Amino acid sequence: MPSDNDMKLARASMRQLAAHAHEDLRVQLAQSESLTLPAAAVRLLVDLLSEMADGNAVTLMPSHAELTTQQAADFLNVSRPFLIKQLEEQSLPHRKVGTHRRILFSDLLAYKRKMDALRLKTLDELARQAQELGMGY
C-alpha cells in the first residue's frame, strides 16, 4: 500500500503527466541521460499514479498471464465456486494443467467487459421501466 508521501507524490506526478498522456514524452533522467516514453506508456503511468494517489495498491499483469481459479475469482470479486460454475458452463475459456484450471488474463478481461456491459444494459432497462411506471427514478 502506498504511504501518505507516496500518495502525495503520485497525485502531483499524475497531474503533470496527464497533460502529455496522448503524446510520446521525452524524460530527462540525469544531466546526460534521457529517454522517450511512448504515449501508451505515459497513459499507463497516469493510470498507475492515479490509483496510487487514491491509496490503492497496483499490480501489473501481462495479458498472456494465466491465473488460478482463486486469483480469477478475486479479480472478478466473486466466489471461487461461482467462478468454477462459469468455467464448467463454458462461459469463460480455460485450460486444465493436470487437475488444476488456468484462465488467461486476457480471457478474464473479455469476460468481465461482457458481464459489465450486460449489467449496464439490465440497469438501463430497469431505469426505463421505473420511469414508465412513474416510480421517481
Describe the structure.
The chain has a three-stranded antiparallel beta sheet. A two-stranded antiparallel ribbon has the order 1-2. The chain has 137 residues and is α+β, with helices and mostly antiparallel strands. The chain has helices spanning 4-18, 39-53, 69-76, 80-88, 105-132; strands at residues 25-28, 34-37, 66-67, 95-97, 100-104. Helix 1 (4-18) packs antiparallel against helix 2 (39-53) and helix 3 packs across helix 4.
Order of helices and strands: HEEHEHHEEH
Shape: extended
User: Taking Cα atoms only, what radius of gyration do you get, to the nearest Å?
Assistant: 21 Å
The side-by-side strand order for the widest beta sheet comes to 3-5-4
What fraction of residues sit in β-strands? 5-15%
Number of strands: 5
Number of helices: 5
On the 0 to 100 scale, the average pLDDT is 92
Low-confidence stretches: none
Characterize the largest beta sheet: strand count, sense, and whether it forms a barrel.
3 strands, antiparallel
Give structural attributes:
alpha+beta; two-stranded antiparallel sheet; three-stranded antiparallel β-sheet; 5 strands; 137 residues
